[in-house]
Amino acid sequence: MAWGVSAGILAVVGAGGWIGLSGDGEGGSGSASGAVAVRTDEVAAVAARMRLPWPEEGQASIEVEGVGSLGSRGGREPVQIASVTKVMTAYVILREHPLTADEQGPEITVDEAAAQEAHSLSESSAPVREGQRLTQRNLLELLLLPSGNNVARLLARWDAGSQEAFAAKMNRAAAGLGMSRTTYTGASGIEATTRSTADDQLKLARQAMKDPVLRAVVAMRSTTVAGTAGTVPNTNRLLDKPGVIGLKTGSSTAAGGNLMWAAEAGSGTARRLVLGVVLGQRVDTSPTEGLQAAFENSGRLIDAVQKDLPAALDGASGKPAEL
Which chain positions lie within coiled-coil regions (predicted)? Predict the structure, then answer.
């Protein structure tokens, strides 16, 4: 299947900062003044030099910050994304209730519904108790690390009063990011009617990694809950891989294995943020089998980018042209 490459700008990164992707209206999380770039038509040459091991099933899309798209596979038909949905949940919560890197935010009381759902045997949940007061930051950790559906719905009620009202906010945010093939119908992702594409979710990943709190949370290996013994681990086992710094898992029998990921390629001042989304791996098997396939296929893509990107950048252009 053929894959497309979007034009972008390849920039030299100074002082270890990130350069935002071209066409990204909100800019990157860092900047490099006086950056020199190659011509935009040479971005295709970078992608052409990459030998990426695309998954044979589902959808996948990758981009490199400061370079542009490395392509996508699997078409643009919206599919179920399961708990990858929670990245938008966290994004909307932090847009409505911003936190600085060292802030915990307001305390939120765990209601009866969230406490009862903590004992569910049919969906992922986080260990919370009725009446417990947890900070916004701690709840974001319980949303994104163990993928607590009960916490997703609790945060939706806290912010908007109901899941329906919160889903409307999620859809408005998606529209604002140009995610034209995405529909959210709940905060957790358990609903089969929540659907998106790898390309659309990549747009969200780009924005999510600009928020320092969200970026820090998705890189955590575990968290704790006050009054609960032990730690709560992150479901994203890909964090054990060198250079991986996030983002979010999602799996179900109907959705298959899904993974939105962020990794670094290169070193020193030449390091670059690589973002990818892999959807629909081993659909109609078990969630465990699907997620394992998502980890394996994403890991192979990350290995290839980390290995081949420096040479692809060097070979794509001769002397950089001033913009």
Answer: none
- Please name each of the domains of the chain with its CATH number: 40-91+182-316 (3.40.710.10)
Choose the weakest-confidence range: 33-42, 118-127, 190-199.
Answer: 33-42
- Cβ atoms of 29 and 18 within 8 Å: the answer is yes
Which pLDDT does position 15 carry in this prediction? 29
User: pLDDT-based confidence at 43, cuts 50/70/90?
Assistant: low
- Report the first-to-last Cα separation within the chain, whole angstroms: 34
Phi and psi dihedrals of 62, rounded to 5? -140, 145
Q: Where in the sequence numbering do the catalytic residues fall?
A: 83, 86, 147
One-letter amino acid at 63 equals E
- Look at residue 65 and tell me whether its pLDDT is greater than 60: yes
Q: What is the DSSP letter of 243?
A: T
Q: H helices of the chain, where?
A: 43-49, 86-96, 112-117, 136-144, 149-160, 163-176, 198-208, 212-218, 287-316
Measured on CA atoms in the order 302, 278, 25, 89, is the torsion positive or negative? negative
| Rounded average pLDDT over 71-96 | 97
